[in-house]
C-alpha cells in the first residue's frame, strides 16, 4: 500500500472510531433498564474475550507473557485498567442519568488536562499560547462552578481519569491493543464475579429477565469497546498525531449535540458561556498545534 493510500485509510478508520465513540450515548440509552455497574461489567467481560481472541489470532498464545515482560508493564497496566474501568463506569452512569452534555465537556477538556499532566509529571514546557488555552479552559470551568454552585464533577472526573490513563499508557512501552488486552485480563475475573453475584442475588437478569434484545446489546458492548480502540491504534500508526489530535473532538461534539438535540438536556445561556470559554481555548490550542507541526515539517524538509 502506498503512503498516500495508507494515510487516507488511516483517516477513514480514525474518523469512524471517533464517530462511533460519539454515538455511544444512544447505545447506552438502549440499556437503561440495566444498572450502570452491570453494563460496565458486561462491557469488560465481553471486550476482554474479544480482545484476547484478536491477540491470539494476530500474535499467538504468547502475547500475554511477551507484553508482561516489558519493564513496569505488570503494575502500571493494572493501574491503567482500574482507571479506564472507573472512566467507563462514570460515563455510562452519567449518560443514563441525563448528563450527556456534562460528559461531553469532560472529553472536551481532557486534552488540556493531559497537557497539564505533561508539564507536572513529564516536565514538558508550554508556550504562551498553550498557557493561554489552559487559562481560558480553567476560566470556563470556574464560570460553570460559580453558576451552578459546585464544580462539574462528572466532567472533571472523566477528564482526570482519562488523562491519567493516557499518562500511564505513555509511560509504559506497550502496544495499544496489547495494553488493552492486559488491562482486560486484570479486569475480567473481578467483573465476572460481580456479574455472577448479581445473578445469584436477584439483581441481574441476563438470559432470564431483560429479554433477548437487551442480552444481545450487552454482549455487543464488547465489540463497541474493542473495535474503536483497535481502529484508533491502526490509525495513529498511519496518520500524523497532530491530525488525530484534532479529530478527537469529533466524539465529544457528537455527544454534545445528542445531549441537547436528542435527549433534550438543558443548555441555557449561563452554561453556554462556560462552554464558549472552553471551545475558544481548544480552538487556540488546536491552531497552535497545527502551526507548530507545519513548521516542524518544513524544517525537516529543509534539513
DSSP strand count: 0
- Separation of the first and last Cα atoms: 27 Å
The low-pLDDT segments are none
Shape: globular
Q: Tell me the helix content.
A: over 70%
Main location: membrane
Keywords: Cell membrane, Membrane, Transmembrane, Transmembrane helix, Transport
Membrane topology: Multi-pass membrane protein
Subcellular location: Cell membrane
Task: Summarize it.
The protein has helices spanning about 5-20, 25-30, 35-60, 65-70, 75-95, 100-120, 130-150, 155-170, 175-200, 210-235, 240-245, 250-260, 270-300.
Kindly list the characteristics that best describe this protein.
303 residues, mainly alpha, globular
Explain the overall architecture:
The chain is mainly alpha-helical. Helices cover 82% and strands 0% of the residues. It contains 13 helices and no strands. It has one domain.
Task: Write the topology of this structure.
Elements (H helix, E strand, L loop, with lengths): L2 H20 L1 H7 L5 H24 L3 H6 L4 H24 L3 H23 L5 H21 L4 H19 L4 H25 L11 H25 L4 H7 L2 H13 L6 H34 L1
